Each structure stands twice: as C-alpha cells, then as structure tokens.
Amino acid sequence: MNMSNRKLNVFLPLLLAVVLALGMFLGHKMPGSGNNGATVFFTKPARGPLQEVMDLIKAKYVDTLNTDKLQQEAIEGLLSKLDPHSIYITPEELQRVNEDMDGNFEGIGVEFNITNDTVNVVSVLSGGPSETAGVQTGDKIIQVNDSLVAGNSITAEKIRRLLRGPAGSVVNTKILRQQKMITIPIKRGVIPLYSVDAAYMATPTVGYIKISRFSATTYDEFMKAMRKLTQAGMKELIIDLRQNPGGYLDAAVRVADELLDENKLIVYTKGKDFPRTDYKTKRPGLFERGPLAILTDEGSASASEILAGAIQDWDRGTIIGRRTFGKGLVQEQYDLDNGGALRLTVARYYVPSGRSIQKPYGKGHDDYNEDIMERLHHGELVNKDSIRINDTIPYKTAAGRRVYGGGGITPDFFIPFDTARFTPTLTAIYTRNTFSNFVYQYYTNNRAKFSAYKTVGDFVKDFQLSNEVMNEFKVFAKKDSVPGLDHLTPKDESEIRNRLKAVMARQLFRTEGFYETINQEDPMVKKALEVVTEEAKKEQ
C-alpha cells in the first residue's frame, strides 16, 4: 500500500461523517420536517390564491360543478381587468380562429345559406372538392353522413362542423336537385380563405384592391393582384381597408414594403418586457412611385392602421374615409394544455412618427366596446369637426401635414357615414338577409339569363335591373315582413337596385363581382378616383 492510499484510509471515515451530518441538517430544514426554519436550497412550489380556491371548490363544494366552465369564467374575469384585446380562446373556438389567420381550412368547398330550415348551395368553389364530385349551385343538402339536416332546425355552425374534416376523408351527402334525390360522396380537401376580396381596374389606369384581413396568405395574394393590375396598365392605386380588423403584423409590413422605398421605418413595437423592435423596408417594391389612396373607416383596425399610418407618415399616399378603430396593441398567442389559447397583449406598436394609435381603455371594456356607437351619437361619423383627437405626440410630416395619434388614424379626406341608408325598410331587408335569399332564388330560376355575362365588366356595363325584377323582389320581401315597400323613397329604391345588382354579381363572380359592381356608386371610391387622378395630372 502506498503513502497516498494510507492517507485516504485515515480521512475517509471523517469525510463520511461530515457528509452524513450535512444530509441530516438539510433534511431537518426541508418542507415537511416539522421545523419552521428557512428552507435551504429547496422551495415548495407556491400555489396562488386562485388555484387554491379552485382546488378547494373541486374537493369540498356541496354540489357537482362544471369546473371547465368555472375555470373559463375565472380566466375571463381576470382578463377583464387587463386591456380589451387580451382574450381567452376556448378549444372550440381555436380551430376557427386559426383557420381565419392561416388562410385555409379543410372541407368540401361550397358556400351555402339556410332558408326555411333548408341548406342551399349558393356557390361551388371552382376546382374544389364539391365541383369535382358534381355538386352544383342550387342543390339542397338534405343529409350529411347519418345526420339529417333538412327541416331539423339546422344552424350554419352545425352544418359547417358536419361538412368540414381532415383533407382526404370522405363525407357522404344526400342532395335534392330538381325534385330528385341523389347521393354524392365528396372527398374533402384544403380550401383557401382569401383575404384579398377583389382586384380590378377601376379605370384604364387606376387599380383597386380590397383587403379584408391580414392573414398568412395576404402578402402572396396582394402580390398576385399587383402583378395582374400592373400588366393591365395600372399607374394609380386604391387600397380598400374598410372593415379590415387587422391580423398578422408581418403581413401588413410586407405589403407596406411594396409601397415605400428602401430603409424606411414602417412600425416599431415596444413593451415593458418587450424590447423595441423596428420593422423597416428591405427590398425594392412594386409600387414605390405613383398616386396612392388608402380607404379606411371605423372598422379598420390593428394591421390596417399600421399600413395606413406608415403611408400617411411618409407622405406616400392619401388616407380617405373616416377615423380608424384605434387598436395599437400587440398580442402573442400561447397554447394552453386544455386545447385553448391565451392571446395576451405584450407590447404597443408605434407608427413612424412615434405616435401610438391605441385609443384609451381606462374606463373599462364596456366603455371601450361602445366607442363606435359613441362616435355615431357624438356626430363624428357624419361630421369631421366632431372628431375627438386624443393626441399623443405633436407631429408634422415632411410635407407639413399634421397627423394625430391616440385614437386611430385620422383621414386626410373625410367621407361621412350615410345614416340615411338605414331607414326602417332597408334595416329590415339587411337584418333578414332578404337580398341574398331573393337573389339565390332568382338566379336558380333564371340561370339562362345570366349565361351571356362572361366577365364582371360585361355585367357591370350591360346588366340593367328591370322593373319586373324589382316588383318580384318587393313581393318576396313582403313575405319577410319588410315594411314600407309600397312607399319607397327614391333613395331607398336606388339603394335596393344597386344592392340587388351587386349581390347578383357576387352570385356570378364571387366577391370580386360584388365589389366591382357596388363600388360604381360608392362615395369613398369616387373620391379616391378623383384624388389619384388629380395627383397623376400633377406628376405629368
């Protein structure tokens, strides 16, 4: 045995004794030892009061409770004390929310309406699963797999759940077509949800693009639309963001990058635990030069306001319409173990001038949610001088234009809301969905009359709504208990005729047909055409 081994044998018993003593000391100090001394190295995971209460209710409460519902209400109660855009998304809602943002869903590719407890196929997606299987516009869906859906108090949500499912799976449908029952198996597929609803040439040189939301596919759709319009001779552009609730920040940034030249700040985000992040233009855009107008209203929010704000701050274009919603908060979505999600506000975003466009929410969610109605009652929607500005930062653009923050993007040209459109007669027609129901019936009974119209332009130019059709509509609407049809004002009659023609165009050419037709009489679009045309003359 060498010297080192002898020394180890001498000190080994002492080393073991020290380790044993230390272990006894730590064990004495750990939770559950009965000693009130401070815990060393280890801490007991602390349950918050909320979790303690939930656990006690589960274990001790006198009656059986739906604890999932109770937890949901507790979460919503907690979030109600935060900003209005931090929300809990239930597992049932999450799929629909994600589909809207992803830009697609898995289903059979039909659009339907429900009248008299009957599911009517209004249109069939070109190249989609239903068209491949032989489904036609005008078919009535009677049964889906083993579920009878006709005359069964079916709702739109129920029929969607029955028809949607994993791509590649088969849904068996029984369909009534011209009084004959047929069985059609349909292999489900991936169905696109488009966010660019229309892209057409409003004049030989002015292009129009309608963006309904900013989803994962918006930029690609926008670029496709831009290339089409550029090839058609576009020199001026109108982008319609009315009633666009926003969506992905990245989608709005990428669209803005196509309209602004290089190395310009588009937006930046910043929060308490969220360091400032700048989003700048990175590449040459398709439309960095040329007259540009952006249409906004009180329904334009979030990503829509980012795009409009950047265009306004850099004097790149003209904002036309009404003050936007005023949402300048950034949310991140966190998946939860129960299959739901928490969408939590983590930062604010600021447009290039440094202005936050988030409107105040300190008076609570109810006050915040009533803001649009308050604007109407206050007169802001009909009178520019009634706009209430909560200015967060004084700023003038390089061109000397004063811009405002703290409550949305204020337009350069104000277009009032037409309150005269909502007479008792028109309100009843809209709330009862009478336009769509009548047009569906009229189209299915008169298909041959519409076969001559090969393009939206042909339809807009050549189709005239006859007095005979107008009288048929009145008879149909009276069955819906619509009042005042025998004493229409000239304005009401004009509105009905324009809307019927637009809904017919939608039946033929989907959303692009609707917007190209309805925009013929739209005051905002008319003003935008006037503005970009004048700008084009100045540049010549």
Automatic annotation (TrEMBL):
One matching Pfam family: Peptidase_S41
Presence of the UniProt keyword Hydrolase in the record: yes
Alphabetically ordered keywords of this record: Hydrolase, Protease, Serine protease
Keyword Plastid: no
InterPro entries for this protein: ClpP/crotonase-like_dom_sf, PDZ, PDZ_6, PDZ_sf, Peptidase_S41A, Tail-specific_protease
Domain PDZ: 94-170
SUPFAM superfamilies hit by this protein: ClpP/crotonase (SSF52096), PDZ domain-like (SSF50156)
An annotated GO BP: proteolysis
Single Gene Ontology MF annotation: endopeptidase activity
PANTHER family xref list: CARBOXY-TERMINAL PROCESSING PROTEASE CTPA, TAIL-SPECIFIC PROTEASE
Family: Belongs to the peptidase S41A family.
Protein name: S41 family peptidase
